[in-house]
Specification:
Elements (H helix, E strand, L loop, with lengths): L16 E4 L4 H10 L2 E2 L3 E3 L18 E11 L12 E7 L6 E5 L2 E2 L6 E10 L4 E9 L5 E10 L6 E10 L4 E10 L22 E9 L2 E8 L5 E11 L4 E8 L2 E10 L5 E11 L8 H15 L1 H19 L2 E3 L2 H17 L25 H13 L1 H13 L1 H10 L30 H17 L2 H22 E3 L5 E3 L16 H24 L1 H11 L5 H10 L22 E2 L18 H5 L1 E2 L6 H7 L6 H11 L11 H10 L3 H12 L16 H15 L3 E3 L2 E4 L9 E8 L2 E8 L2 E8 L2 E6 L2 E6 L4 E4 L1
Parallel strand pairs: 22-23, 25-29
Antiparallel strand pairs: 1-8, 2-3, 3-4, 4-5, 6-7, 6-12, 8-9, 9-10, 10-11, 11-18, 12-17, 13-14, 14-15, 15-18, 16-17, 19-26, 20-21, 24-25, 26-27, 27-28, 28-31, 29-30
Helix pairs in contact: 4-18, 5-6, 5-8, 5-18, 6-8, 8-9, 8-10, 9-10, 9-11, 9-12, 10-11, 10-12, 14-16, 15-16, 16-17, 16-18, 17-18
């Protein structure tokens, strides 16, 4: 059911930036998301420094911190044992972006006076959000306003803004007010659970404020989660003429007001540095000191030097991660936009992850999902593997909570990872589509397997990977059982398709559990043979019985994998094919997504899929299926899939490409590549879709280039879409950096780093070396 609608290009097509040349209140809410900046910790929506007075519900001026959250008790009208007790949600933290401008007594406002010129751009190579405005006040006073904003990749807690005003036809009084505003709130979810939080009131309680000279700071505590937060700014006015500074306080709003005797043609520059420090990272008593020190160092470094650092960081990133497309400008822009936002959104400290909306909005409450392991992890593994390892470290940090959750779910041993979380506890209040998705354990195991095959990092397995694998593998024997025919069955679970819940033997879940159980046994045997002392330590730590790995092997060998012999397809679960097919022909377009228009029980009674389920297994377990299997499964499930989930189109694109449905593959791919830029799901204004963004990279590498890793071996089977002249991308694999370039009739493999790399091209084995680093094949 791929959409046939043509994409609507919001911005001029530029490979390395998005740019708008006019101001429009109708697109403002969406623009705030698309122009957002972040560094994996801080996220600042693309709201104007000088404010916005547009219509209601056309703005969300948010500032967010990855992993900083408030918690609230989940209230159930009817409760039951083991339901998630507490929700965690990302907070809208104090706004330090504010810089208001006054010309005499008239405030600069894009909706008043006259906007003669306007341009705003976000450059993916420099990481700078730039805005230029030429504005005339109601009294005829013309000013040029240029703002530049950066959230520093090299400094986790720091952002900076440079705001320059030049009077063009007058001399007189100009006032610049740099503010730090703690009177912020989270958006409430209302009827759409994808949007915001079910928050009952202000989440941050003001404890203290400090203001002196160029420094302002607010100290807040969360009401329930017990965290302290210091939000701070330091401003400096660069102006050779006469000016005065006044410090103002209005409730939770701190202001540094600079009154300037402006001279026609003489620029007035205000530089503002901001920081956030919380007790999730440091002791509460250190937060104010660290804020002062960081801002003082930033002032000493200077805005220009911070921009240079940012550009250098991004140059290194693009050198490793760039995907080049020749022949489709819209697609090239979409891919770079997606890669840039992924980098902005991902936690790099081992304590944070990447949420469904990144740090651009409050959708899904800032929760982390399986999106990380199945969609986002491969992008970072092959583009910037050190970040991928940090994502694995995050899961190890949550292992103890996963053990506790397993006990709550009546598993005597093992670990069950949460479906939705920030700090490690299960936050999903709707268990049929949350806790029941036990496949999260196998998804995490899958990412560990990918990491080990790509890096050969034995130390990681010893230090943490093996423990995660084996603790989570235990859960399958806890939830599963053998039926009268001797098959190992896993009952009452939900697979990836959330329009089908609480079923027996979901194919994806069982197939991934089989991979998980076998890999856990492999790792146990590997470590026991190569490093018996380390294996003894790990076994003692988790109370591992010597017979457990063999039990995992047996369950994997006898796993029940539903198959319908008449249709010759893999059944999504035991009951899916016995249900009636959803009446797609008589479902009006406005009734999609189904989850917002039909009771879950109505949906669950039908053959209808929200997203790829069996078809996802075809990708992740590619070598277990023939091409004919994949074609039959695709042909059956695609007409039943609404793609109401943004995670869906990229997977269907990859499999369509593999089975030769090239036109469908390209249409699905375009849906993914520009999902946010074209707002095809209609909710990007609440935050980007990070899984779909990563799915774009997967579509190039896994889809058109046919990349697979099978038993540690790297394989390619490239195709070139007819719309493209060529494409290229790079991957890290086994200590090497490989560039793949696909042209008409020719694929070139080039070894950029490393001594040697083996791979296969359409079944032909090749080896790249330092002395022969390039191979070209038809």
């Amino acid at each position: 059911m791929v959409s046939s609608a043509k994409p609507q290009h919001t911005y001029p097509l530029d490979a390395w930036s998005i740019r708008e040349t006019s101001f429009d209140t109708q697109s403002h809410f969406l623009d705030e998301t698309l122009f957002a900046l972040g560094n994996g910790y801080i996220g600042l929506r693309g709201s104007y420094e000088d404010g916005y007075s547009g219509p209601a519900n056309t703005t969300l001026d948010g500032s967010y911190l990855n992993g900083f959250y408030e918690s609230e008790t989940i209230h159930y009208p009817e409760t039951a044992y083991g339901l998630a007790k507490t929700n965690q949600f990302m907070l809208n933290v104090p706004n330090g972006k504010g810089i208001s401008l006054w010309i005499d007594d008239e405030r600069f406002d894009l909706l008043h006076g006259t906007v003669e010129q306007y341009e705003r751009s976000l450059d993916f190579r420099t990481g700078v959000l730039l805005r230029k405005v030429l504005w005339t006040s109601s009294k005829g006073q013309r000013v040029s306003i240029v703002s530049r904003r950066v959230v520093c990749f090299e400094h986790k807690h720091l952002y900076a803004i440079e705001y320059t005003v030049t009077p063009l036809n007058f001399s007189g009084k100009v006032r610049l007010v740099a503010s730090l505003d703690g009177a912020v709130r989270n958006i409430e979810a209302g009827d759409d659970p994808r949007i915001g939080s079910a928050v009952s009131g202000p989440a941050l309680q003001l404890v203290d404020s400090q203001q002196e000279d160029d420094f302002s700071a607010l100290l807040h505590h969360t009401s329930n989660s017990g965290f302290a937060l210091v939000s701070a700014t330091a401003s400096k006015l660069d102006y050779s003429g006469t000016h005065t500074l006044r410090l103002l306080k209005n409730g939770q709003r701190l202001e540094q007001s600079y009154e300037v005797q402006a001279i026609e043609g003489l620029a007035i520059r205000l530089t503002k540095f901001g920081s956030y420090f919380s007790s999730r990272d440091y002791p509460a008593k250190e937060l104010m000191y660290r804020s002062r020190d960081t801002l003082a160092q930033a002032q000493a470094t200077g805005f220009a030097e911070l921009l240079l650092e940012q550009e250098q960081y991004l140059a290194n990133f693009w050198q490793q991660a760039d995907v080049e497309i020749a022949g489709d400008d819209a697609l090239q822009q979409g891919i770079h936009f997606n890669q840039f936002h992924l980098l902005q959104s991902v936690g790099r400290d081992g304590k944070t992850n990447i949420s469904a909306k990144g740090v651009t909005g409050e959708g899904y409450e800032g929760h982390y999902f399986w999106d990380t392991e199945i969609y986002i992890f491969p992008f970072f593994l092959y583009s910037k593997p050190e970040i991928a390892k940090k994502l694995l470290e995050y899961r190890y940090a949550g292992l103890e909570q996963a053990r506790q959750r397993a006990r709550q779910m009546s598993h005597e041993r093992g670990a069950l990872y949460p479906w939705r979380t920030i700090a490690g506890e299960e936050c999903s209040a709707y268990f049929p589509a949350g806790t029941a998705q036990y496949h999260i354990n196998a998804d995490i195991a899958y990412s560990i397997k990918l990491y080990f095959e790509a890096t050969g990092d034995e130390d990681y397995l010893i230090q943490s990977g093996a423990e995660i694998l084996m603790e989570t593998a235990r859960i399958w024997l806890g939830i599963g059982s053998y039926d009268r025919e001797g098959r190992f069955c896993i009952n009452q679970v939900t697979g990836p398709d959330e329009y089908t819940a609480l079923v027996n033997n979901n194919y994806y879940t069982n197939a991934m559990a089989r991979l998980h159980l076998n890999f856990a046994a492999d790792v146990a045997e590997r470590i026991a043979a190569k490093q018996p002392e380390q294996f003894a330590r790990i076994a003692a730590l988790m109370g591992l019985d010597a017979a457990e790995p063999a039990a995992w092997r047996r369950a994997a060998q006898l796993m029940n994998l539903p198959y319908d012999a008449a249709l010759q397809i893999h059944a999504q679960d035991d009951s899916f094919l016995s249900k009636k097919v959803w009446d797609f022909a008589n479902t009006p377009k406005e009734k999609y997504p189904l989850l917002l228009n039909y009771h879950p029980m109505v949906i669950y009674r039908h053959q209808v899929c929200k997203q790829a389920d069996v078809v996802l297994a075809l990708l992740l377990l590619s070598d277990e299926f023939s091409k004919e299997d994949k074609k039959r499964d695709f042909d059956y499930y695609e007409p039943l899939t609404t793609h109401d989930s943004s995670l869906s189109s990229c997977i269907y694109s990859i499999i369509a490409s593999e089975i030769g449905y090239h036109e469908q593959a390209y249409d699905f791919f375009m849906e993914t590549a520009r999902l946010d830029l074209d707002n095809t799901h209609g909710n990007t204004h609440y935050g980007v879709h990070t899984a779909a963004m990563a799915g774009t990279w997967m579509g190039v590498a896994y889809g058109f280039a046919g990349m697979r890793v099978v038993k540690g071996a790297l394989r390619f089977a490239p195709t070139l879409p007819t719309q493209w002249q060529h494409y290229s991308f790079k991957i890290h694999f086994q200590g090497a950096l490989l560039e793949v370039r696909v042209e008409p009739g020719r694929t070139e493999y080039r070894l950029l780093q490393g001594e040697t790399l083996r791979l296969s091209h359409r079944g032909e084995e090749i080896t790249l070396t330092l002395s022969a680093p390039v191979k070209s094949l038809a």
